[in-house]
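Reply to dn_fold:

You asked what the input looked like. This is it:
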Amino acid sequence: MFELRDLEQFIALVEHRNFGRAAAALGMTQPQLSRRIGALERDLGAVLFSREHRQIELTPAGELLLGEARTVLKQAALTERLLRDAARGATGHLRFGTRSTSQYGLVPAAIRRLREMHPQASVTLTGPLQGLLIEHLRQGTIDVTMVRGPVNLEGGLQSATLRSEPLAVGLPENHRLARRSVVDAADLADEAFVEIAWYQAFGYRELTRGYCARVGFVPRVVQAVDSSDMLAIAVAAGLGIALMVDTSRELPIPGLVFRALRPKPPAVDLQAVWRAADRNPLIPPFVRCLMNEAHSTVAEAAAAAGSEGQPRQR
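and this is what came back:
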């Protein structure tokens, strides 16, 4: 049975119309090329070239093989490129789901960077309820998610920390405490709080309520919402205050301000999470893209804070 190399040699001889020139182009001797062409003709049971008067001309069988050989070699080259691209993560499909407010700043830039690196890659975006993100990941409905707060990695999950941010207090802009640059947490004891219903799913409740307990009070929760952006909207509307990460750079909402807390509050990790056994070749480069964008935004925020003399507040 002939090989791809045989077809390459056959086409080289067709193009050069001379055994010597074709052999030189192929990096072999003329006798070697003559033997290879003879072996190809025997394998196919057909004469491919007319050698009368020392002229190299294609026979009808050679004309037929020429078209097929070019098609085969073109398809082989395409197959090789696709396999190499797949091994590098350059092709394939990635399903990403999140409801984190960081999606507005990090995700578009990370996807653009991924597609610049791997133009053949495709990405599907989804936004399931925040409390169901990890469950969707475990079930295979999505390939990667991005969440804030501690995550239970049991069941074969893996995570990478994108950045860590301290808890702050979100206040309506006309709140009595909004005039302060730093708020004593003890002064929040009598306030009405808004929480996210899925806090417990990501260990947020332990963080926020644990912080309040260390200060000496149990927060009076008057409402629970289902997402970070709805939490910010509820605070801006004056429905209560919230312990949350400062989202003003990612999701500026009129009427909402953030203030630092005293004593020092716990930090909240923003994490990319995926299935450890998943062999989707797009997962590693996409996680790297998220990490690069997260590091860039941290550097930009630090530079902006330094130029203004204090963190920007809205």
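The longest helix spans residues 60-88.
Hope that clears it up.
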